[in-house]
Amino acid sequence: MIWDQTTIQLQEYPRGVHLITNDVLANGPELVNCQVGLLHLFIQHTSASLAINENADPDVRGDIERHLNVMVPENASHYEHTLEGPDDMPAHIKSILIGPSLTIPVSGGHLALGTWQGIYLCEHRNRGGGRRIVATLQGRW
Q1: In sequence order, what are the residues at sequence separation of 6 or more whose Cβ sits closer than 8 angstroms to the Cβ of residue 79?
Q2: CA dihedral in degrees (21, 24, 25, 29; nearest 10)?
Q3: Collapsing DSSP states into helix, strand and coil, what is residue 129?
Q4: Which family does it belong to (predicted)?
Q5: CB 85 within 8 A of CB 77
Q6: What's the CA gap between 40 and 37, in Å, rounded?
Q7: What pLDDT does residue 39 have?
Q8: Is the distance from CB of 132 to CB of 11 less than 8 angstroms?
């Protein structure tokens, strides 16, 4: 049984939903020798989240971002936490709704994602800065 952990430093992404599967594969723990295991990803931020969804058509990512903005609008009159800008409190709510972590099966040295699945960074701030993801691999060589 092996354990491996690394922190992935992502570049700054603009607000929106971004496909980061290749960033995770290039900068995360080495999967190639892991025959069966789990890759756990945890984002260390309260205004961004991680998800798995469509990896082919970028319209899906745009639609998700637009829908989240309708569900959780900026400048809602009931927000008390407003000192960090109009996008901050909605970012916290979106992060809770989507979540900070993913667990992905590893099989035969590869992520066992479906054909049309990819890993998303959901950046909920207009200028969130670079993001850190702790990637922990547990498995059997």
Answers
A1: 89
A2: -150
A3: coil
A4: Belongs to the UPF0047 family.
A5: no
A6: 10
A7: 98
A8: no
Q: How many domains does the chain have?
A: 1
Q: Tell me: the pLDDT tens digits for 70-81? A: 999 999 999 999
pLDDT digits (tens, 9 = 90+) for 41-92: 999 999 999 999 999 999 999 999 999 999 999 999 999 999 999 999 999 9
The per-residue pLDDT for range 110-137, each reduced to its tens digit, is 999 999 999 999 999 999 999 999 999 9
CA distance 138 to 37: 5
What does pTM read for this prediction? 0.96
Residue 125: give its domain's CATH number.
2.60.120.460
Residue located via tokens 């998700």: 64
Query: Which residues, listed in sequence order, are joined to residue 134 by a DSSP beta bridge?
Result: 7, 42
Are 107 and 38 a contacting pair, CB within 8 Å? Answer: no
Of 50, 128, 122, whose CA–CA distance to 84 is shortest?
128
Distance CA 102, CA 38 (A): 10
The alpha carbon of residue 18 and the mean position of all alpha carbons in its chain are separated, in whole angstroms, by: 8
- Which two tokens mark 3? 């354990």
Q: What is d(CA 47, CA 49) in angstroms, rounded to the nearest whole number?
A: 7
Mapped onto helix, strand or coil, the DSSP state of residue 83 is coil
